[in-house]
Design goal:
By secondary structure, the protein is an alpha+beta fold. The chain is built from 9 helices and 10 strands. The chain is globular, with a radius of gyration of 21 Å.
Length: about 280
């Protein structure tokens, strides 16, 4: 009898994550997780930290507290029931951990009624790099910039990879200080399926620049997708998220502006793509 083929580090991590996500409401003992991963407890924790940037205990607690935040906003469960359902042995320990994670007490979070700082389970879209999504919110703002039309992800002729850098170059020639806080908004063109209106800009500070347009972006809750690298990878991840992950996530996309939030002076690399969402209706 031939010995079973050892799992690759990626397959071992993916199997571990699947187990954690499926048993989040149960005790997750380190010894059992190490057995599942066919390694020692020490190696498990070291490998998990290296792959995700989080300790295993921190990751599990973050997911449980994010689930608790959703339950608080649903308004149907008592705080004590939520604490026990998320693996805490008392309401006091739950409140302490919740405040450390979200910066406020559970009751204050429930009263505010806004999703912010929620972590979604780690994903690996189509066997690519791990992706950590989060649910967050932004207040209304006004964007100052330039806009033009392009073909989006689902257009018959997508040309956003060529058109978007052109729009940014035009903006930065006219408004160099936009490099300090670059931000983009993406509107769906309701008259042309698949076509988008892309705004390259910066938050409006009260002083208009000649030749630039203004766009009001309403307050919303968002699904936040981190990205660093080639535009094609972002496009593939967004397509996978919208088609595969979102329908079963408990959220639905809204017909509002998507946002791109960049680090200062960085309009090509690290950014976050913000998709406006709302809780999906309960069946």
């Amino acid at each position: 009898m031939t010995a079973p083929t050892p799992l690759s580090p990626q397959s071992r991590l993916d199997r571990l994550l699947q187990h954690i996500h499926q048993h989040l409401d149960e005790p997750l003992q380190l010894e059992r997780l190490a057995q599942l991963s066919a390694c020692s407890r020490w190696q498990l924790q070291r490998d998990f930290q290296a792959a995700t940037g989080l300790s295993l205990a921190r990751y599990i607690r973050r997911l449980r507290l994010s689930r608790a935040a959703e339950w608080l906003l649903s308004g149907r469960l008592r705080q004590l029931d939520i604490a026990l359902g998320c693996g805490f042995d008392s309401e006091v320990s739950f409140s302490r951990a919740f405040r450390q994670e979200f910066g406020c007490a559970p009751g204050q979070y429930r009263q505010a009624g806004i999703r912010r700082g929620l972590s979604a389970p780690l994903l690996r879209p189509d066997n690519r790099q791990l992706l950590q999504l989060r649910i967050d919110s932004r207040p209304a703002c006004r964007l100052m910039g330039l806009s033009d039309h392009c073909g989006g992800l689902f257009a018959e002729h997508p040309d956003f990879a060529e058109r978007v850098p052109q729009i940014w170059r035009r903006l930065l020639q006219r408004c160099p200080h936009a490099r300090q806080a670059p931000m983009a908004a993406i509107e769906i063109d309701v008259c042309q399926p698949g076509r988008l209106r892309y705004w390259a800009g910066t938050p409006f500070g009260g002083t208009a620049t000649a030749g630039l347009e203004l766009l009001d972006v309403p307050a919303s809750e968002y699904l936040v997708v981190p990205h660093r690298g080639e535009p094609g990878t972002l496009a593939a991840n967004l397509a996978w998220i919208l088609r595969q992950w979102l329908p079963g996530s408990g959220y639905r996309a809204l017909s509002a502006c998507d946002l791109e939030i960049y680090a200062p002076a960085d309009t090509r690399g690290g950014m976050e793509y913000w998709i406006p969402i709302a809780a999906a209706p309960k069946c």
